[in-house]
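dude i think i finally got it to work??
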Amino acid sequence: MRYPTACLTTWALAAALAGGAAAGPTVRGQSDQSGAGAIRTAQAPSHSDSTAERPQAPPGAPGTTFRDCSDCPEMVVVPAGKFMMGWDSGDADEKPVHEVVIAKPFAVGKFEVTYGEFNACEADGACKRDAHFGRSEGRRPITNITWDEARAYAAWLSKKTGKPYRLLSEAEWEYAARAGTRTKYAFGDTITHDQANFSYGKQGEGRTKEVGSYPPNAWGLYDMHGNVWEWVEDCYLGTYQGAPADGTARNSPNCASRVLRGGSWDYEADEIRSSVRYKLSPKTFPNDEAGLRVARSLE
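look at this
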């Protein structure tokens, strides 16, 4: 594990001073990463129509791709199934390893949500980021958003299309990332820089890449390892003791921290494994490594 040493921007330094010392590795510019175990805390045109622009056939078999509107993310149908969540050789928050059953197929964003896609929500007046920069980066993944802003984007998609968009649960995310594997990564027990965007070993050197720049996993999902951390729905708890076996999110009205998954461009190989978990406050100031991917329930 590596600890951040890069200089913080002015706003990130202020956030860090307000939050106190971190207990472990953090997403750069964040301050609320204390907790149990070795926890790592890591133009589009304007459209005002709240419905999809054109009717589309319902999604089909697993592997089918679809898009509910011209501004909507491309989605991939993921099959029902079961898997073992967590890793015996991982940190305390990756245990105990337990079986999770995903009873029904669901759809997952083929890519991380991009600036262009998120900007369409902003242009529609439904999304607003506290960090107002990087607006014209097109196919790069959106960053500098909080958990609340990520959920607002999913809610906008639901209103626009009439379909149930949301963030993935943590279990759904790991199930989709593994894509039927039980290895450290979707590509095996090792990963290379030809397979994902992650650190070469110098903190702060690098940046996000356009989504789809690296090979997909076996289920056709891109950038599940590296590029940006992805917000999921769950509250963070320090172990999987008592975790649901049906893939639903662990939630609480007074949730102090939410989970992010997948690693980022600024983290090394061991920190972008399929089972790695990070946490941040849902109200935390945005940072340049946190983005999102959406899910959609299927009728």
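The CA atoms of residues 93 and 238 lie 5 Å apart.
im so relieved honestly
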